[in-house]
Records
---
Amino acid sequence: MIRGLELPYICSMEQLLARIDGLKKEITAYPDGDAEAFRIMYLGSKGLVKEIMGEMKNVAPENKKAAGQLLNEFKVFAESKYDELKQLSQKRQQDNGSEADLTLPGDSVPLGTRHPISLVRNKVVSIFQRLGFAVAEGPEIEDDWHNFTALNLPENHPARDMQDTFYISNPVKGGTDWLLRTHTSSVQVREMEKGKLPIRIICPGRVYRNETISARAHCFFHQLEGLYIAENVSFADLKQTLYFFVQEMFGSTVKIRFRPSYFPFTEPSAEMDISCLICNGEGCSVCKRTGWVEILGCGMVHPHVLDNCGIDSNKYTGFAFGMGIERITMLKYQIKDLRLFSENDVRFLKQFTGAV
């Protein structure tokens, strides 16, 4: 490093020139290092440049003009060396990536969007809320009673084989069998057990089934189920409710049909089909050349279910329905692979920016 300076009394131009030449050699040989250290040593308030400039008072009057020019040139020389060191230091930091260049423009942040499942869920909820349905939610880890038994599926009932269940633990003698819920019907049971009638609710949520993952099935998916219980509720009320939903969701030109079906918790039971949105009912691989696609199951609540939940089945009736949100989403946006919803591929997800 450069040593400190103890200037002798300057009384001639020769001495001043000699001292400036010596300092210029030191500055020229200054190693490429910390520019700030150079600034403090030479250009700071107590630096060598200011110190030697202060010796103007010791120069003979007839030499002051020439000495002033020499000192100014020396100051410019020292400042140019400082600028050079500063540029080298900045370049080295950028090359090493150790410090961000705050003069560069910031990176643009891409605009996010809601997941297509969330978009459709919110749309379906909005439609039924306009009909007076309230949203009800429940736990994803359920007991056997709320998931099966209360819904007219007692132990060893063959309909239990229709749902491959994820059991969390085997029941201890006299204990409870815990599982991941296979449908959101368990939320309906919990609401019926409260005994606050009439009931008009929809139950959206994630459910789990032990199925092989493919383009048409997954081990977890989303359902939305509805329940309406009051006096004198009829199947006609169910049909008109679902007619309204389909027209609001898919448009007034979509055709609708009901087919008889079987569910242990409803009687009578039905499945509802709509005309295929991909081929407009003409027949394609998605609708298996039939022109129709099943979107939900429904029916009148079975009297045994009402009795299990403490509701007088002789006084009250009700209807229930359930749909897979993934299926509704696939139909609405013409998506053919269920796995795309859970792969977090940004190229797929950003297609739904601004979608409704």
---
Amino acid sequence: MAVAFELSALPARIKQWARELGFADAGIAELTLDRDLAHLHDWLAAGCHGGMHYMARDAEMRAQPQRLRPGTLAAISVRLDYRPHAEAAEAVLEAGDRAYVSRYALGRDYHRLVRARLLQLAARIEQAAGPHGYRVLADSAPALEKALARNARLGWIGKNTLLLNRNAGSWFFLGEIYTDLPLPPDDGPAAANHCGSCRACLDVCPTGAFTGPYRLDARRCISYLTIEHQGPIPLQLRPLMGNRIFGCDDCQLVCPWNRYARLTEEPDFAPRHALDRARLVELFAWSEAEWLARTEGMALRRAGYERWLRNLAVALGNAPPDEAAIRALESRLDHPGELVREHVCWALERQRAGARRTDAAGL
């Protein structure tokens, strides 16, 4: 009886410890994810995952925590807010000569911070409950983390496929602890879906990546194209990408629920190297050594240097005609990477065409 009582009381203590460690919220998820797995299979069958072949390889494991970590009886889901104090996103997007970096990637790579805090939380749980098996996940293993967070009563999955919270919007990271402790899942009412008839996120997407509510085609998503996609960016999508060089936040920026999102005081999420307002030509001039030094410990490393230049070239091609942009692009015409050269040539053609139109108009 004593052990049962302690386990029933543990979820409340876990939530308290999570907040003490800097997480905004935590909950215990019910592990049934059959409908989510069916949705995933349908999404994969349509090819919406693009080149993310690991999504298909690990589909079953994502929906069955016990297959990822044998013996798992419960999943603890946590939320960590990340909206940084930074230059207004809308102002950067409107300034065509500036580089837009998704707000989550302006500071330290969140994976390390979330993992470190999850390990601290797991240690506290072990102190209270005794030795047990567990595994922490910070977007580091196959898991349907949004579905688990929904089951843990942390929010609902919105039409933009992100988890939404009525009091915090969507500017947060998720993390999990899979444990063999038989923790009772949160049994309060599930978060109601408050998207209603709103379709702001669906309509604002620059590349039309949403094929419908709750359905995102990664092959048209700017986040996928600038971070995950390995090869050339499709020609028809390049002009639609604007100055977004790493990720995209448009579907979050227009979400009405994000008016409740709070700015984080976490110093690790503060913008580094003025990346919240940097000019495209400045970033395009970084050598590989400079890029490696300045992006150390940041999520930007995921793109790699050549794709960083590829993305910047596209943004420069979309920027207002400018001699500085033309000179910057010309300086990379002999880059050893074919991927970079091809995008530079495309961008240079657009810049020169724009300059000719400006001259013809007498501007």
---
Amino acid sequence: MTRSTRQRERTREKDETEDQEGVRACPECESDNLVKDSDRGELICEDCGLVVEEEKIDPGPEWRAFNHQERQEKSRVGAPTTQTMHDKGLTTTIDWKDKDAYGRSISSKKRSQMHRLRKWQERIRTKDAGERNLQFALSEIDRMASALGVPRSVREVASVIYRRALKEDLIRGRSIEGVATSALYAACRKEGIPRSLEEISEVSRVERKEIGRTYRYISQELGLEMRPVDPKKYVPRFCSELELSEEVQTKANEIIEKTAEEGLLSGKSPTGYAAAAIYAASLLCNEKKTQREVADVAQVTEVTIRNRYQEQIEAMGIHG
């Protein structure tokens, strides 16, 4: 094959790939702000108004639904796969309603038969001890995530981290609850919804020290590149629990930004740092909260708040 033939072949493959992936940017203004108009079957550039593609095939369903109930009734597919279940949600479930396909009640003989089938279905969902342990760990992650009030994305990430730890045989010699809790703590940090070790240990069945030790081991072994937690991420939640205004929240973020620039944040606990900034902001905005109240919400000691507060007001040039 000659050089020119190879070049033509590569160009053709590139064009085919672009056709499959679809247009990424507007050919007129090179903007990537493209919007699909499903009614007209067009792809339009929102910046310059150019119709980039027309008569596009709609990959969605052929039916229309106007509420959730209609959508559920017309849908012909099941729930998407999820990492939060040991079998990824691909199992068969025998319904508990004891009714046939027409909604009629089944006979007592059939009911007892379905009860036995349901029981065996639950038993054979896990084929070995490894799967049973995974099922227990994922249910623990789900329980703790619900108690912490974190979104579903965090549960998915935690489940993936736990599965990776299981695959790398990092569970051996450690408790399942400890590794599951550490995976959830890591997922919270990964997704930018940080929870302190104290908050995590409150909903867990293991001690704070074990969670911290297991978390460090897992993050090192799996190469989880964790950035330091930004104290500003704690401010909205703490302010909400203390019933402080938007003004205090803005002032606390300003204090954190200015003092962090001077290197005060290095080596400090982000929760304690955020709590001290909120305490300082509440005083400056005349919405005073006691150190005890702030410490209870942030789950730090009053001494920590006093020390960080003193450092912050000195750095800001405020004389308290």
---
Amino acid sequence: MRPFLCGVLFLFFTAVNGALLTADEGPVSFHRDVLPILRTNCIVCHRPGKPQGGLDLTTHAGLLAGGDEGPAIDAGDAAGSRLIATIDGDEPTMPKDGEPLLPEEIETLRRWIAQGALADEPASLFSLRPAEPPVYHSLPAVHALAFSPDGTLLAVPGRHEILLHHADGSGVASRLLGDSPRLESVVFSRDGTLLVGSGGAASEFGEIQIWDTAKREPVRSIKGSNDAFYGVSISPDNSQVAVGCADKLVRVFNVVDGIEVMRCDNHLDWVFGSAFTNDGLRLASVSRDKAAKLIDIATGHLVDDINRSRDPLVCLARHPIDDLIATGGTEGKIRLFRMEPRGGRLAEGDNKEESFVREFEHIGSPIQSVAFSPDGSAVACGVASGEVRIFKTENGQRLAQIKASHGPVFAVAFNADGDLIATGGQDGQIRFYKTSNGELVQEFPAVPQYRHTETP
């Protein structure tokens, strides 16, 4: 049982001219103060996909919209708001199967509603962007890699930054600082003019960073959700970006204004990858729920299930020319699928394999990342065992097998010429290998590493 004294300690009252005043009458922030309370106590039931009572409490808009029983709050009137009525009192009706909210939590919600139930943007209350590039006392794991199409740069996420290495591994060309403590994915646009990263802060916000590659300047930061974004992709015409989310949604945003233009809730677990079709009208996504799906961007509706449910999927790569995707998951097999509709939703018993092209050899360890060569002729994967394998796309023939003992490989990327493959993983080192035979060519740290020296 939660101690009542917590509430007593949180608030105290002072008599002034016979009136009782709360100790803190400052403005209450939705994202800083209110959303963490809802996340802890409410959104396990009231979230997108199948919100109980039709009520989604994961966003400010959802809270204002209310549910099947009407508005949840009446801005400016805390006492008359249904949200307060359900969580307060001697026998509160919500949370239905959990502990009652603490008195200070109820008071925070009450004050926020009384102050007008205003919204604020995630992470906009204060900038999380560091003034100076971070100093590293150890090497962070490498979760993503991307070579620029012109062959000059290698993008590597760090802490609160994207590091642009010279593609030959000779050093860092630029450091792009941003709000997200961690970026989960990076990708260059097809023409190389834009660099896009996705990530955020766990249980706080998701962010998409869009950078002008030539100027090394931010084009836009798009923040949303209450958890990190994964598997970012950019449309062929550079007009839209898509992400998978820890809240089980797939989202598409406009690059020009950052407005969310599509949201799909057909997945049942975290979504780790996204990929636009060549015409930019549809989007493929993969999730830990074992599903690969094809989504209509204009409506957000599911067009087709792409695969037959097998193993949780954690990575996706799009073929650079054809409407094909390669998926990887915990079973340890790359599978190739077409991104094209089949004329309708699946019927019960459908084997869901009409989009299937081929399956590559079993590796025996969960696949963490997949990537195509620039011409699409080869596909590579990095696995949890530390191994990397490269195959011919057309027939699945193995081209190279790289066995190493450096820990899990979380990221693989072909250089612009396709003759080298870069890997990154748990140990924070970037390694270049020849794609023809897997020979190690070069190794260097992903970030400038601080080296402590003892003073005699």
